[in-house]
Design goal:
The chain is α/β, with parallel strands linked by helices. It is built from 19 helices and 17 strands. The longest helix is centred in the middle third of the chain and has 19 residues. Bound molecules: S-adenosylmethionine.
Length: about 450
């Protein structure tokens, strides 16, 4: 029996208590489709409790002005606490609130284990914060946006939790197969006609070969999750075969369009003057290893100083062809992606030769606040080459920053100390752009 079945099999009735100032919000949506049927069959029950019915004054007030001033009204404690006390079996008490734990399938599965859930719907500016001192409850958010009230969120939560009850959908398999239940997004569905204005259904689905169909669906689910929600893959347990399949997909090679340029001139010194900085052995090794681990297109060491160029080349030679490489073969592979060039233009032209297009130049800085997001760079990599510029010394000179097509925000900008070594910054930035959780 799967974990999913074991956890949800024996439940009979799921009861929701809805504390709301707008009880009229619920009966319509809850009477539709499978939810309506589940309620008619007694699989799901709900009760509506209006705090207004428990308001002590003759105006039946449920809100008041906020202490400290400011706009809007705040839901008062007393009617809410009385409304809650009227419930025989409140069960687990959830307060819909933007500051709560974000609701997802894992949370839905967790709530589906309960027999009673009470959903407290806020309105106005929210609920008097002392509510949580009187009631053992958990805040649940429906996402990073603000709704007028908790009611629509409560409906979503009820639906996601109810459909995990055995027999809600007729076939338990349907819920198991769905997005998130297995840690993956679901494969795509198609129905008749098999061809619509030239758009054909994938042939395998018409083959009648169930084994092949299952394999195709699994691949599609993996592919879609990798492309659209790589963060889910980090959390799910991927079978070794599936991991092999994922490794072959191009999402694992988005780095092929990303190049790194380690600029030694023009950069700033301590006094903010333009200078040229000497090479650092560690930078070359560590950035080359980042480059190799993330499958990047290449790494340019940029310095106009001929002695420094020669130093870099002899270092690379030693590790690729000399004793260094013989002792440490995987360093050969890493240093293979390094090129030494005299200036930025040479790096740009080398990329152009390699990919046929001029790269978009994206600069980085520990000080100047850039507006180019990591996500924007990730998107650009789908069909463009990007040269990410990293400065040695005290950072890239203004002429490089001004000439770039974009500037990333500084790492740890809120911290009072953000002096990372350039090789550390390179690793963090690359991971933010194309790492699995990016
Ligand atoms: C207008 S909102 C209050 C927003 C609040 N002043 C704030 O800025 O966080 C009123 C009520 O809607 C519900 N609500 C709004 N957005 C929500 C979200 N993303 N998740 C869950 N509940 C939400 C909460 O119950 C909240 O108390």
């Amino acid at each position: 029996m799967t974990e999913f079945n074991r956890k949800t099999r024996y439940r009979k009735t799921m009861k929701f208590n809805l504390l709301t100032l707008f009880p009229e919000f619920f009966p319509g949506p809850l009477s539709c489709g499978l939810m309506g049927k589940a309620i008619a069959r007694g699989l799901v029950e709900y009760s509506l409790v209006n705090p207004r019915d428990f308001a002590p004054d003759r105006h039946r007030s449920v809100d008041d002005r906020p202490f400290g001033g400011g706009p809007g009204m705040v839901m008062s404690l007393d009617p809410l606490l009385r409304a809650l006390a009227s419930l025989d079996h409140p069960g687990r008490i959830l307060v819909l609130s933007p500051d709560g734990r974000v609701f997802d399938q894992t949370l839905a599965l967790e709530f589906a284990q309960e027999s009673d859930l009470t959903l407290v719907c806020g309105r106005y500016e929210g609920i008097d914060a002392r509510f949580q001192e009187f009631v053992s409850c958990e805040a649940v958010s429906m996402g990073n946006y603000v709704l007028n009230g908790g009611e629509s969120g409560a409906l979503c939560l009820m639906e996601a939790v109810s459909r995990l009850q055995p027999s809600f959908m007729g076939s338990e398999d349907s819920a198991q197969d769905e997005s998130f239940s297995s840690g993956l997004l679901e494969y795509p569905h198609y129905t008749r006609p098999a061809e619509y204005e030239g758009a054909r259904v994938p042939e395998v689905l018409l083959s009648g070969n169930h084994q092949e169909i299952a394999a195709w669906r699994k691949e599609q689910a993996l592919r879609k999750t990798l492309l659209q929600r790589p963060d889910l893959l980090e959390e799910s347990c991927i079978a070794p075969d599936d991991l092999l399949f994922l490794r072959q997909l191009s999402r694992f090679k988005p780095g092929k369009n990303l190049y790194l340029g380690l600029v030694h001139f023009p950069v700033l010194n301590k006094k903010n003057e333009i200078t040229a900085v000497s090479l650092t052995n560690f930078d070359i090794h560590d950035i080359a290893r980042v480059c190799c681990s993330y499958g990047l297109g290449g790494f340019f060491v940029i310095t106009p100083l001929e002695d420094q160029q020669e130093l870099a080349r002899s270092l690379i030679r030693y590790w690729k062809k000399g004793q260094g490489g013989r002792n440490n073969p995987d360093r050969v592979q890493a240093l293979d992606c390094v090129d030494v060039v005299a200036d930025l233009e040479e790096a740009v032209q080398a990329i152009r030769k390699n990919c046929g297009v001029l790269p978009r130049q994206i600069a980085s800085s520990a000080k100047t606040r850039g507006r180019t997001s990591y996500q924007e760079v990730r998107h650009a990599l789908q069909d463009e080459a990007v040269l990410l510029l990293l400065g040695t010394g005290h950072g890239l000179a203004d002429q490089i920053l001004d000439g770039a097509d974009g500037l990333l925000p500084p790492l740890r900008a809120m911290s009072s100390y953000n002096h990372l070594s350039v090789r550390t910054a390179a690793a963090v930035i690359v991971d933010r752009i194309i790492g699995e959780s990016s």
